[in-house]
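Readers of this paper often ask what the protein records in our data store actually look like. Such a record has a labelled line for the sequence and another for the backbone structure tokens. The tokens are whole numbers drawn from a learned vocabulary of local backbone shapes. We quote a single record here, exactly as it is kept in our systems:
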Amino acid sequence: MTNNYAITTKTLIQNVHLGLPKPENGDTFLVKGDYEYWHYSCDGVIDEGWGCGYRTLQTICSWIRNNLEITQPVPSLKEIQEILVSLEDKETSFIGSQEWIGSFEVCLVIDQRYDVQSKIIHVPYGRDLKKHSDVIKNHFVNFGSPLMMGGDKDCSSKGIMGIHYDTKGTYLLVVDPHFAGQVHNVQQLANSHWIKWQNLTDFVDSSFYNICLPQIICKSLK
């Protein structure tokens, strides 16, 4: 696979951020390597309203699989729930439920599934995200893996595939798993803002955010 344009697989489109225009001239730091865009109902499981954290986790898992060059499949929603129960993070009743997961659960699953540890950034208020922007930048420089971001008042899980600095502010490259339906092309996602550059000032000031940073170095950086 190549990483200089978005390509379509049998069911999922890859590298959906590629080709998305930057807000304006400035410094940009992006995810490295290939990933699949996992989103609501993309595998036939209807999960609208509760599955966004799982889908972002699956997107990260697809990157780890490609980076480690392993054949072990991305875990299904049920398998993710079973992993969390096996780790005693959840009760048995969690399996088959529609309970949400967040950045902490994402860390647990990728550690158990792929032996990849993660760092968690806790941001008490969205207005403080800028204070952590250099940590995010350095992650893309030194590791290159996708991030998972979730909060409380802003409870919509999202993948973060880059950060951009320019004269108008600092932006995160959001890959939103809440799209439901068939993805025909990247432009479709961009037009509906399922992939977008979001200014840090547009996040919810009063929401806390947890950001999961998988500590695995992209093979292109080794």
